[in-house]
Amino acid sequence: MSIQTPNPDDPYVIRTDGDGIATLTLNRAHQFNSLSQAMIAALHRELDAIASDAAVRVVVIAGAGKAFCAGHDLKEMRANHNKGFMQDLFKRCGKMMMALTQMPQPVIARVHGIATAAGCQLVSMCDLAVAADTARFATSGINVGLFCATPGVGLSRNLGRKQALEMLLTGDFIDAPTALQQGLVNRVVAGDALDAEIDQLARSIIAKSSVAIGMGKQMFYKQLEMGLEGAYQYASEVMACNMMTDDAAEGIDAFIGKRKAEWKGR
C-alpha cells in the first residue's frame, strides 16, 4: 500500500457551505490538525469572513483524518525557541479563540479522535460541541513540562474547578461520556451518527431568529464576566432592545396567531 505524501499547497482550512451552515475543516490530517501559526491564521481568516456573512447561520468546526486537533505544533515551537515567537503565537491563538465567541453565529465543534491541549481548548471555546463516543480529551502539556495555561482559560469556563484542575495537573485523558458529564460537550453519539446529530442541532438553531440568536450570544458571554447585579441590568437592557426588533414582534404575533413565524432578520 502506498502512502500519500501531504501536499504543502493544500489549504490549511477547507470551507464548505450549505443551507445556512458553514463547515470549517482543519486540513492537516498528517499533523493531527495541529494549531501551527499558519493553521491559526487560516482559521481566524475564515471566522472573520463568516462573521459578516448573513447567509451563514451556524458554523461547524471539524478535523480531517483521524483526529479533531492535537494542539499546538510542538516541532514548530521547538524550532523557534525564543520568547518573542511564543508570545506572538499565544497572542494570535488567543485572538482566534476569542473570535469564536465574538462572532454572531453559534459555533459547533465536531469532535472525533483526540482533542488535546489547544485542541481541547478549541472545543471549550466553541459555543456547542458534539462528540463521537470514541473521542478523547486531554490537556496534556504537563506531560512535557508545560502547564496548559491558555487551554485552562476555556476549560475552567466549561468544567468545575476541580475537574478542570485534574485535567490540567495530570494530563490524563477523559473519554467522551466523561466530557459530557463534566460539561465539555453537549452530546455524545456513535461516530457514524455524528454528522446527523450536528445537522439536527444546527437546524434547530437555524429555525430561530438570527437577530435574537446574535444578540443572545453576545449577551451570554458578556454577562458571564459581570457581577450578579450588573449582569441583570445588562441582560434587562438587551431584552428590552430585543423586544423592539421586528423579529420579536413577528414571533409573538405568530405565536398568538398559531402560525409559523416568518423572520425578517431585523
Number of strand elements = 9
> How do the SSEs run, as a string of H and E?
EEHEHHEEHEEHHEHEHHHH
Mean pLDDT over all positions: 95
List the total number of helices.
Answer: 11
Structure commentary:
The chain is of the alpha/beta class and 266 residues long. The protein has two domains: 13-206, Alpha-Beta Complex (2-enoyl-CoA Hydratase, Chain A, domain 1); 210-256, Lyase 2-enoyl-coa Hydratase, Chain  A, domain 2, CATH 1.10.12. It contains eleven helices and nine strands. The longest helix has 20 residues, at 83-102. The protein is globular. Mean pLDDT is 95; it is low at 1-5.
Write the layout of secondary structure elements.
Layout: E1 13-18, E2 21-26, H1 37-51, E3 58-63, H2 74-79, H3 83-102, E4 107-111, E5 114-116, H4 118-125, E6 128-132, E7 136-138, H5 149-156, H6 161-170, E8 174-175, H7 176-182, E9 187-189, H8 194-206, H9 210-224, H10 228-243, H11 246-256
Parallel strand pairs: 2-3, 3-4, 4-6, 5-7, 6-9
Antiparallel strand pairs: 1-2, 7-8
Overview features:
266 residues; alpha/beta; 2-enoyl-CoA Hydratase, Chain A, domain 1; Lyase 2-enoyl-coa Hydratase, Chain  A, domain 2; 2 domains; six-stranded mixed β-sheet; 11 helices; globular
Put the structure in a nutshell:
This protein has a six-stranded mixed β-sheet with strand order 1-2-3-4-6-9, sandwiched between helices. With 266 residues, it is of the alpha/beta class. 48% of the residues lie in helices and 15% in strands.
